[in-house]
Amino acid sequence: MTRAEAALSDPSEHVILLAIDLLGNGCTPAPLERILEEKRGWRRPARALVSLARISPDATRRQLPRFVSHPVWQARIYAARAAKILGDAESLGKLRSDALPNVVAEALVTRDDALAALATDDYGLLVTALELLKGMESDDSAAPMLLETLARISDRMERTSRDPRRLLLERLRELDDVTVAARLEYLLEDFDPAIASLAAEIITEKTGKKTGAKTTRFASDPLPSADFLLGLQGARATIQMREAGSFVVELLPEAAPLTTAQFVKLAESGYYRGLTFHRIVPNFVIQGGSPGANEYVGTPGYIRDEVSNLSHERGTLGISTRGRDTGDSQIFVNLVDNFRLDHNYTVFARVVEGMENVDAIQEGDVIEEILVTRR
Fold first, then answer.
1. Which of 3, 65, 80, 158 is 20 to 30 A from 104, comparing alpha carbons?
2. What are phi and psi of 85, to 5 degrees?
3. What is the pTM of this model?
């Protein structure tokens, strides 16, 4: 019996899931086939499917159809991963027609797949498609589609569109078509200074004429009122999970007033209700609070980093970012002491009750409610 097989009897679900992943590294298929027959839950069988695809393609092909049509969309993502390993074009084609953008993103393979995905407004799917296009053999025929997508997404005036718009600009930059420069001039006064600056760089490169951005900073956002912030002193939030139970966090407005205020406003508006923890990294963090259940979909605006002398100790809560001052609604909980995150990510709360339930949260567990109580 291998260590991975022995770990299947571990009391920790995180360890069992990791063991299932490791069983795809040359082990016999029997343990994975047994897991695939389990009737309770989707996480173990879905991950077993991917591991089985690495060592027993024929057995996986027999199991794959039920995962392609699985009622849980996260399981269909694992189906796409298995189908890629198998090179199963038919299954991948079905998954690219899925209603959930995250499933579609996982099923993208070719340049044509990526170009077709540009019709979406989902930022996570757009980022995946645009990253897939990088380095692929391309020609200037893609320019109209890239330009149309850029204009459409820019019209939404959402700060969190920076990532897909930056990649759209980079793909346009790679084309030989110098005429795209004129089609980018409107971005010189874009609401996002990072996009305005990148557009200026590309226009300069393609025309040989030095061009500068007209926008150099974001317009200021209104600040929370003093009374609202003072009312958060001593406040706590109870986060009720569907599967793992609840945990209580102490809010820290003295250290991160803007972040705490946004979290409270979103929680009290019901924003987090029904959202998930989509990213689970044992011995690191859990992350959630995205309506798209991915890194790129959050509230339309950014909030500034509020880095303090608080460390990212086990049980502290931070805000996920994709660069300086790019936080939105997504939160993470440190599962261990992550001091390497200090001075880069905001700490705005700490768990004071139910850390054992935080440890039990698994991929796709749903936030049923966040109840804020003031002192």
1. 158
2. -60, -40
3. 0.93
Q: Where are the alpha helices (DSSP H) in 96-225?
A: 101-107, 111-116, 123-133, 143-154, 162-174, 193-207
- Choice among 75-84, 93-102, 218-227 with the minimum mean pLDDT: 218-227
Read off the pLDDT of each residue in 92-98 and give the average, rounded to a whole number: 98
**Structural domain boundaries in the chain:** 3-107, 112-207, 226-373
Q: How many CB atoms lie within 10 A of CB 41?
A: 13
Q: CATH classification of 226-373 is 1.10.10.10, yes or no?
A: no
CA-to-CA distance for 77 and 364, rounded, in angstroms? 12
Q: Is 373 exposed, middle or buried (0-12, 13-18, 19+ CB in 10 A)?
A: exposed
pLDDT at 5: 81
Q: Which residue has the higher pLDDT, 68 or 11?
A: 68
| Nearest Cα to Cα of residue 68 among 53, 79, 83 | 79
State the average pLDDT for the chain: 95
Strand 236-241 vs strand 367-373: parallel, antiparallel, or unpaired? antiparallel
Mean pLDDT of 81-86: 98
Tell me 324's DSSP state. T
291: Cβ–Cβ under 8 A, 6 or more apart, which residues? 275, 297, 298
CA dist 353 and 309 (Å) reads: 23
Name the E strands within 177-276: 236-241, 245-251
